[in-house]
Amino acid sequence: MESMGLRFTVLSSGSTGNATVVTNGEVTLMIDAGFSARRIDELLLEREMTGQELDGILVTHEHSDHIKGLGPVARKYNLPIYANEKTWGAIEKSIGQIADENRRVFASGEARDFGSLRVESFEISHDAAEPVGYCFYDGKDKLSVCTDLGYASDKVKHAIADSDVLVLEANHDIEMLRMGRYPWNIKRRILGDMGHLSNEATGELMSELLNGRMKRVYLAHLSREHNLPDLAKMSVRGAMEDRGCFYRDSEFVLRDTYFDRPTPWDKVGEP
């Protein structure tokens, strides 16, 4: 089947669960399965899909908000699971029995072709066994998905540079987190280099990446305790402008993701 162009929907994103679907019409992959199988079916249905249309699941890391429904969904639809060896070691006990033919090792830094859809994984900094993000290529179109990272290393910046569309973490407002009810050890973890990106850090990163090609960034994995969608957009934009990175909405747009519903389908190559 000929590619119909690279499209995606963030089914849901946040501290309570994460899943994203990427397709080019020939191949359809889900990144993570951080909800019950029933909830994933509901989210897919909201985008007029079923699990039978999936060709596999890519895993970023082993935390429960990314793998809660991984085993049940893979068994229900007989789907291969792709993860690096250390992540496989970390998820095996929690996802239940997986058929040998559906246990696929996808090494960090590897590029793999799924038909006409090329996928590259890249290492990120997070307190997990071997966490990764993913880049998707179809022809000249590039989509990158990168959440759950304490800071953006040069390796991360190189991987996601020249993306047309980017799904990027903007987890927390630093002051909301500091004033929040979490114990200090958890706050310290979130703020650390193996935790999560703040709004300000996301804006700083965006000021380095914006180069005229990138059209849209979806702010993902927002904390329900320590962030707000409008605050995230305002803070990211403010941090970009503080570093001399100004733009018009006709050139570049920040978009929301949601903890309780999918984003609309987005075709990556379109303005």
UniProtKB/TrEMBL annotation:
Hydrolase as UniProt keyword: yes
Listed name of the protein: MBL fold hydrolase
Reaction it catalyzes: 3',5'-cyclic CMP + H2O = CMP + H(+); 3',5'-cyclic UMP + H2O = UMP + H(+)
Short name of any one Pfam family annotated for the protein: Lactamase_B_2
Organism: Paenibacillus segetis
InterPro entries with a match to the protein in the record: Metallo-B-lactamas (IPR001279), RibonucZ/Hydroxyglut_hydro (IPR036866), WalJ/YycJ-like (IPR052533)
Function statement: Counteracts the endogenous Pycsar antiviral defense system. Phosphodiesterase that enables metal-dependent hydrolysis of host cyclic nucleotide Pycsar defense signals such as cCMP and cUMP.
Gene Ontology molecular function: any one: hydrolase activity
UniProt keyword terms in alphabetical order: Hydrolase
PANTHER family xrefs: EXODEOXYRIBONUCLEASE WALJ (PTHR47619:SF1), METALLO-HYDROLASE YYCJ-RELATED (PTHR47619)
Entry annotated with the keyword Transport: no
Metallo-beta-lactamase domain span: 16-221
